[in-house]
Amino acid sequence: MVLRVRTLTPEEHLAFLDSRESASFLQTPAWGEVKREWRAESVGWVDDSDSGEKIIGAGLVLYRRLPKMRRSLAYLPEGPLIDWTDPDLRRWLAPLTEHVSAQGAFGIRMGPPVVTRRWSGATVKAALSEGGARTLGAIPADQTDHAAIGVTEQLKAMGWRPPADGDGGFAAGQPRYVFQLPLEDRDEQAVLAGMNQLWRRNIKKAAKAGVVVSHGSADDLPAFHELYLETARRDHFTPRSLSYFSTMFRALNSENPDRVRLYLAHHEGELAAATIGVRVGTHAWYSYGASSTAKRDVRPSNALQWEMIRDALAAGARLYDLRGITDTLDESDSHFGLLQFKLGTGGEAAEYVGEWDLPISRLLYSAFDLYMRRRG
């Protein structure tokens, strides 16, 4: 095969994604509409030796200009969707580099959707009980994908390098460590039985307290956002705007009417918590969450997660993704509570190969790197 990269129409891109079991929602054509501050382009890999020009790989490229410059960083979050098992990745990545360079890119950043290691909940709990290990990487993984590790070796040989990451897996882009709940060949009873006692008790407590979970519409986004701002103040993170969520809701659901859902948990007529879930094929994600401090005792967040998991099962999802964690096992670390909450679902921690950069113009890439460091 002699591979070439060309621009795809949104329709071609979406048709390719629909032919696959799943892909990250950050690699859908609609995500380009959400990221308005970036210029979006759908690209596809075709075999030049095939006169039919069948698309065999695809990606969403987001171009971000350097301040006061005409050159851009080309970013493929959680992508592209190519054959990462190929022992010769150069034939896939060289035409990508050529294409984005012609578009004015001074460098590329991508996040291959390739998992290197997995740790079961039981393994993580045992490590916490024994003490000593301060990070996930310090304990033996239950699964190690040596082919995935081979991907990193190929990338290094081609001049790709991981961006600086000083926060245990929370880099400037997408998280390297995530927490996932396998759903394949399981029903509600099996998933519930796999949760820890506290999670099962909190789900029952929410139901007994009268927490009512429902699906919201775009009209409910302002109420979600008000609660989200309260959560941001409490948990000390920078919130996104209401317009961001409105655009996300409209763009993703215009691509597929069941791509994104808003979940609302009410208690005694008041909004106690809310979440946003996304699904592409057999992969479902918990994307955003918000909760009321005053209503925390009736456990609306557990009720919402359980409803999202049930919906994912009903839709035939094989994986429910609770998104990012850091690799810390240190209970004094401010990020530890996130792992602790997600651990109760009975899922597993997973490590991706992470994001990788290829400087096309080393001078401009260095300038961009310095700019991002000063911002961060």
UniProtKB/TrEMBL annotation:
Pfam families tied to this protein: FemAB
An example Gene Ontology molecular-function term: aminoacyltransferase activity
Keyword Metal-binding in record: no
Keywords: Acyltransferase, Cell shape, Cell wall biogenesis/degradation, Peptidoglycan synthesis, Transferase
PROSITE patterns in the record: FEMABX
UniProt keyword DNA-binding, yes or no: no
Membrane-crossing segments per the record: none
Any coiled-coil regions, as ranges: none
InterPro entries attached to this UniProt entry: Acyl_CoA_acyltransferase, FEMABX, PG_Glycine_Bridge_Synth
Biological processes, Gene Ontology terms: cell wall organization; peptidoglycan biosynthetic process; regulation of cell shape
Annotated PANTHER family: LIPID II:GLYCINE GLYCYLTRANSFERASE
Membership in a protein family: Belongs to the FemABX family.
Protein name, as recorded: Lipid II:glycine glycyltransferase (Peptidoglycan interpeptide bridge formation enzyme)
Organism encoding this protein: Actinopolymorpha pittospori
Lineage start: Bacteria, Bacillati, Actinomycetota, Actinomycetes, Propionibacteriales
